[in-house]
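Why do we care about 3D structure at all? Because function follows from shape, and shape follows, mostly, from sequence. That is the central idea of this module. The next example makes it concrete: a single protein chain, its amino acid sequence, and then its structure expressed as tokens.
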Amino acid sequence: MLFIQSGWGILVVPIVVGTAIIVGALALLSLQALDTPNLPLLASCLGLFAAALNWVTGRRLKNTPPHELIYPATNARVLLTRRHALI
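And the structure:
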């Protein structure tokens, strides 16, 4: 499997792992308190929380305005944008 990373796109991996650990532990504790081991519910909760956290982080990183520079040789305006992706 090949992953291509640019910018802060590598944050996807620790966000998914951290979310799975934290939400998994909380859901397991709450399900044990209810005496009902419901694994499909646990899996769907993990997926939803990881997706939501990735979406929020991605929106925050991709909404930064581009840096504007003037190229001195031609006086042309150049916009530098940051790209963040994990493909």
